[in-house]
Amino acid sequence: MEVIMALTVGGMVAGAVYLFLSRQYLRVMFGVILLSNAINVAILTVGRLTTGNAPLIAQGAEVMDRAAANPLPQALILTAIVIGFGLLAFALVLGYRAYQEMGTLDTGAMRVAEPEDMP
Predict the structure, then answer these.
(1) Under DSSP, is residue 52 helix (H, G, I), strand (E, B) or coil?
(2) Within a 10 A sphere around the Cβ of 26, how many other Cβ atoms?
(3) Residue 101 domain flag
(4) What angle do CA 52, 58, 60 make, to 5 degrees?
(5) Per-residue CA distances from 50 to 3, 8, 19, 92, 106 (Å)
(6) pTM across the whole model
(7) How far apart are CA 60 and CA 9, in angstroms?
(8) By residue range, what is the domain housing residue 29?
(9) 110 — pLDDT class (breaks 50, 70, 90)
């Protein structure tokens, strides 16, 4: 199962890099979303993919008697989802505002701050 997840993460990262290379702002934002999801899946895979075993220690025992999924990566992923959603909302509002001001979402045409005589 870990091999399948690793291949999935690789495909998602490749798709994100492809979207990053676009000149359209929305495609770049979709690349950011895809990359953050790929990182979340990678963290989940690192935390072990076991099912049916709760990460609880029995009363009177000092260690767990069976393998279980690590809950820490799952908590980190929940935090990353919330932060990623906030970043996405801000970036989409920023893109909408840029579209209102400049009339385009093409990053090549968004060169307002650069002088005209630059090569």
Answers:
(1) coil
(2) 14
(3) yes
(4) 170
(5) 14, 18, 33, 37, 45
(6) 0.76
(7) 40
(8) 2-50+68-108
(9) confident
Residues 38-90 have pLDDT tens digits of 999 998 888 776 666 666 777 887 877 677 777 788 888 999 999 999 999 99
Distance CA 55, CA 73 (A): 12
β-strand partners of 24: 106
Side-chain-facing half-sphere of 6: CA atoms under 13 Å: 6
Domain CATH code at residue 93 = 1.10.287
pLDDT at 52: 63
Helix pair 71-102, 25-46: axis angle to 10 deg: 180
φ, ψ of residue 34 to 5 degrees: the values are -65, -40
The answer to whether 104 touches 110, Cβ cutoff 8 Å, is yes
Q: Based on the structure, what is the number of domains in the chain?
A: 1
Q: Are 69 and 53 in contact (CB under 8 A)?
A: yes
Interatomic CA distance for residues 5 and 73, integer angstroms: 15
Encoded amino acid at 28, one letter:
V
